[in-house]
Amino acid sequence: MAVNYINRGSAAKVQASEKTRDDEWSNLLVRVGRDRDRVSFEQLFSHFAPLIRGFQFSRGGQSSAPEAADELIQEVMFRVWTKAPTFNPEKASASTWVFTIMRNCRIDALRRNSRQPVTDESLSVEDIWDDSQDEQPLVFLQQSRNQSAIAQGLQSLPPEQSHVIEKAYVEGKSHSEISEELGLPLGTVKSRVRLALKKLQSTLVR
Amino acid sequence: MIHYHPDNNMLLEYASGSLSWAQSLAVSAHIHFCPQCAAQMKMLNNVGGNLLSASAPVASVEREDSAIFGDLMQRIEARENEEHEEPAAPAKAVRERTSRDPAFSAVPPVVKKLLAQNPVLKWRRLSKGLKEARLKTGQNELEVAFHRIAPGSKVAEHDHRGKEITLVLYGSFSDGEGVYSTGDFLVREPGQVHRPTATQDQECLCLSVVEAPVALTGLLGRMMNPFLSLKPQ
Asked: What pTM value is reported for the model?
């Protein structure tokens, strides 16, 4: 199933407005965190709920049940509300921050549905995918510049590379699952991912 | 200075959430030591954020978004009322001796949490100078353990039955291929034989994650299938 999730045609036009729009979502998030502002939260919800649903539907197969997507939306936005006070717009854009929360929710859902019971003594997903650990001093290009550089980089990837990247992120597949599904040797999947990342990296150091 | 890192493929699987739980634990602990991989994680999360904002929005099918939002706000209010009544109890401190053990003094927060879940480590001697304590992580396909090598000790040459990740938490060790110190992250494929030796002046503590064969998880399997298959010296 080769669905292209990125709308290549309108990419350039969207580019310029995308940055300012992402700033807008960041501002809303800051307001939710600082003032517990429900109006801002509702605006964020209206923006992200259809995107999360779109992301989840793109996975195809059994997980595309509408109830599952609605459940995911509720869980993600619940955590967005709870964690908003820790959001720092200098460290991540709103969409990247929401992505990491969504990823964690999906990992949780997978664990709950697995045959292995999640015991009380096990670690929580936030212990392992701890995004607060990038508190260490790092030298970065401005965060929003990175964001649009990567957006552009993603547009310019050859289709076979963007395809494996999307399978990994959107469908949540491991390299070996992708290799099985596409009938490609594992080494080929790995090298496509590496080439894609190299290209994205090069957009950052320009 | 860290010289050995998880490769970009593994970091991407971690960032996108498809890497196994136990291996993710080792990657997470490595990132705590490694600014370079922390920076790479920023980029990888950024890729996810971009894919989310570029995904085609889908309007609600089952229920109106306003109804979902209503439920959500109810849940949030219920939760906030609860919090007013009883503040969450502070996390239990690590009770065990490990808190005073220099080897465990500077471990990453995720390892501290792991210790809190395993308050009593049962150390088992595997060979001269090598001890192991297995951990409960809520997952069976992969085994997570601490290994300590006494100062200057040579571990018997051994093979691993599955892919093994080793993260050095304290001290350093070496084998035929290199010297590994705190924060270094090593991946050994099954069949790769090595003979680690701890540095002379210091003991070495590592976190290991090994793939376990699925068929052999019963009690008998465990007995016949030790963590390391040691060869006679």
From this structure: 0.86
